[in-house]
Structure formats: C-alpha cells, structure tokens
Give the backbone structure.
Amino acid sequence: AERPNMPYFWQRSNLQKAEEKALAFSHSFLGVRIECAQCHKHPFDQWTQNDFKSFQAFFEGVSYGGKGGGGKAGGGIPAQKGETVTYASLTKEIKDLVPPDPKGGNNQKALGAEFEKRVKAGEPAPWQEVFATIRDSKGKLSEREIEQMKKRNPNFDGRVLTPKILGGEEVMLKEFPDPRAPLMEWLRSPKNPYFAKAWVNRVWATYFNRGLVEPADDMNLANPPVNEELMDYLAEAFVKSGYNMAWLHREVLSSATYQRSWKPNETNKGDDKNFSRFVLRRLPAEVVVDGITQATLATDRIAKFRDDIETRAIGPNANAGRAGKGASNYSLNIFGKPVRETNCDCERTTDPTLLQTLFTRNDPELLGALDQSKGTAWVEEIRKATTASSPATRRKGDDAQLEPLIRKLEFKLKSNPGSKELEAELKQAREKLAKLQPSPATAEKRAPVNADDYITQVFLRTVSRPPTASEVEKARVDIGAANSTAEGVRELLWAMLNTREFMVNH
C-alpha cells in the first residue's frame, strides 16, 4: 500500500509479455487501441509499427516473480532484525513445514493454507512481486540477455529500441531509477493529450448509453467525439481540479443533460447519441445480480450485504464465483460480464437475450434466492412471521423445500405432458406436503397481516419507489388469492424481478 506505483496492474496474469503490457496500458489509461500497429500502419490511424515497438520498450524490463526487489521477500513484509530473508529461503521453509502430497509433488492446498496463515499473522512470506530492470537503450545486450529475451518473445531480433511515448519524444531510461517512472510522469502530465480525455469519456459512458467517443476505448482521429467542446471542457477542468474524481462525478450528475427524462418527444425520439434525452439501457451484469440478491435477502442480512463489498458481485471477489465469496459466474456471464480475456470494452454486453429471460423466470439460482429455508431469504422470514408458531402447528422445514419442487415439476409437466415419471413424482411431492400441513382442527389462527406493508417493501426492494394505488389494489388481490401471505408476497416479488423497470436504468 505504501508503494507509489501500481503493482497489481503490472502483474495481471494475462499480461506476461511486453507487448501485452503495452496494449493494456494504452487501452486502459489512454483509450487508444494500438494493436493494429503491431504488424502494420492502419490506413485510418496515425500509429506506425515503429511507434508500437518504441512504446513497448518501456515494458521490456518489467517482470513478475520471486527474484525481484534485490532478492528480498516481497509483499512489503519485513524480516526480523538481523535476518536475511529471500523468496527462495522462505519458500523452502514453508515447503519443509508442509507434508508432501501422497500422490507425489507439493501439497498445494496445504502450502496455500500455510502461506495465508503467515500473511494474516504479519509474518514474512514468499510473496511474488513486480520488479523492473534498467537497460541503457543505446547499449548492447549480452548473449545471455538475448537468449532470455527470445524465451519471452521468439520474434525478438536482438535490437533494443529507445522507448518513446505515444506521439511524443524518446526517453533515455538510464536517467530514471525505474523504466516505468517516465511513463507515469507523462501519464499524469497536464500536457498528456489522452489520459484526461479517456478518463472523462469512460465516466461519461458509465452514466449514459454511450461515451462522447464510442466505443469508449477507441479514441482516434477517425472517431471524433460527438461534442468536442464538451470533451475539451471536462478534460481541462478535470486536470485543473488535480484529477479530482469527486468533482468530475458531481459535474456530470448535476448537469441538465443527466437530469433529462427518458420519455422521448417529437424532437428527440430519434436521437440516441447527442444526449437530448436519457436513453434506456439494461443495468450492468454485476448490478443486476447484486440487485436480485439484495431484493430477496432476509431483513437482518441486507445491511451486511450492502456494507460488505467482499460479498458483492460488483466487489473484488466476483471472478472467484462460488469458490470465493462473490456471486456466481454463471449469472454474471448470462447478463454479459466480460471474462477479460482481451483488452477491449466490447467484451461486455448489455443486450437483452432469451437466456436472461429464462434466468429470471425459472432458473434454480433465482428460485433458490427466493425460497432458501435457512433464514437467508425474505420470503422465509415472512412465512415464519405469518404462520402459527406453536409446536403442534409449526410447519416442518421440509415443506419449504417441497413447494419449489412442486412448482418446478408442474412447469416441467407443461413442457412434457403425459410424462408418467413426472406425474408420479409430482403426486408423491404433493402427498408429502399435505401430510406436513396442520389440520384445521389443530391449526391456530394466524396473526393479522397487513399485506400493504409487504407490498410496499416489495416495490422498494425492487424498483426503489412505493407502489401506486392501482398497483396496491392489484397486489392485494393476488396475495389474497394465494395459499398464504408468504406465498403471495413471493409471487409478487418474483413478478417485480421480471419487470422491465427493475432491469433497466431509466
């Protein structure tokens, strides 16, 4: 955390080669696609192959592993006073503590557990890190260095180009302690023609249906902004503010442009790129998944979910899927979250698909969020609150599992009418549920239920507004026709999760 650079960017697992780092850097921070210049000069772009190779030279000396930092242990974890701790010695120390895998080789699971234990305790650990080497671009490489470079890049021809910033001057790396230092100085310079505009454009694209330049990561001479004066104003003021993100977000959100209605009129109904109206668009994948989770959670769990970013799909563990704390990769992929295999914003999609509709209608993941019986679902909380609680009449936990099963079987039977196997399974499930229901003779009267409170909560949980009088009246009828208040609320919640109003930003 004390380091002035960006180690996590430089060590991304899919950025091993210098050309990959150069492409990702220009795409992420400059909004410039230079991949074509790897092989040739594109007829509609300004970058030549020599521009690409000279820019790539900034990244040639950047590596990731366990031998950097002068041989010291990485991760910023200090050794004990008087000790010399290296990556190799720490790795050996941990391996000696962990028994080998019975099948041969290292016990990776045990090694990982021991490593995590040391990190949490603040003890020295063999943490791989990013390190950089300085090479005089005018000097010659030794045969060993050439051999190492060819291992990383089979096309390496033995020449070392002088690094050159895009559209700028050459840089003598020997004048800097780190080859990335001049690159970062140029990136943060007020005279940089790309960074501020690229950043402003990405923020703008986040709040609207498109960027001032679209695609947001393709700023080039053949793709000018739709409003150049606005782009220049925001970029220049952003730099003058000291790259103050709070200022930039406030400036966009307080503008008349952002506050325009999504309802079109005769003068702007055909406009989808000049921002004369707000264009409806589907929520990003992570927001949809988090919205579904938050809408269905039990009341006592909502605050924790809202405040604990570790459990959110929008948080740092989303890519871990079920193996980690984040949301399921399946649902995120369904709604268009990119897998980040390429350096292109085009990987993400917000287009509606049939799979998304099927997911919100009857996918087991969504139905499970509604019907969980371990106190994690709001519907289960309502069921407990509206059902008699005496031991003689309390519904057993099994029926909470049987009800969704019966619904699934009924749905399958509609698609496969006449299936004897499904009919038998459905009959058996209904008989089990009937046995679990309390008899009229022993059932206690339910406590009076104010359905309007639940109806209001459903709307606030899903579309962030109270229901209209007409919507309340319709919901009352539906809940009254259900087998129980909890069942009626469940159906209303399911219906609202399937509305366009829930799925779009408007």
